[in-house]
Design goal:
This protein is an alpha/beta fold and 258 residues long. The protein has helices spanning 2-17, 51-63, 138-151, 187-196; strands at 32-33, 40-47, 69-75, 90-95, 102-111, 115-124, 235-243, 246-254.
Amino acid sequence: MRRLLTIALATLCVVLASTTPASANHSWNGYHWARTANPFTLKLGDNTSGLWTGMLGTASSDWSASTVFDTTIVAGSTKPRSCRPTSGRVEVCSASYGNTGWLGLAQIWITGGVHITQGIVKNNDYYFGTSTYTYNNTAEMQHVICQEVGHTFGLAHQDESGISLNTCMDYYHNTSSTDTKSTHPNQHDYDELVTIYSHLDNTSTVGAARANAAPFGTPGSDENGTPRGASRERGSWYAQDLGNGDFLLTHVYWAPGL
């Protein structure tokens, strides 16, 4: 399993390193929700508060413009601080997770090598709500939640250089609430989702309770405790082998300059 996981992550790094604005292929290593028909509906559990609640609504509406799936916001099934996953859906949480260095993170649980079975998104209130931090603005908040929700569909980044491609799936840093670039998906995101979900599966992990669902893992650790993928400056990927052919992938969206 470790050899398979290493190969998968190495492939991801090659894809991301070769990404260019003109010819991006930003599937997250082919990870996707198994389903037997398109379009399908993915539930987003709302465990947010404050401004995040409206921003989750915006992100859900934005991503539902895809032709292959819709998202629907439902009541959350976890406590925001722990933000534990629910099989067959994505739990979206907000809380003050402390001085961790990250603004947001996304986790997806994988079975069968490529199939997403559950996901979570955490938005860290510690860095928002105070003028201490330069990224404390509503545009950066929308960027964070839009991107992390996007990762739970199997999307990676269109660009990691820091420029804006006018998509929330890039690493542009919104400097103020009026700097609203990179706060919504763009057409290439929708096109990539069509590519990711162009084939159908003979089973479904959407809305499905798995008796052998992968256990809750520790965010930000792989089998060696080593970050994989993008630079610590803006984002990192971590992998954790959960046994029985399952593994947990974490994307961490770091606060710039910390």
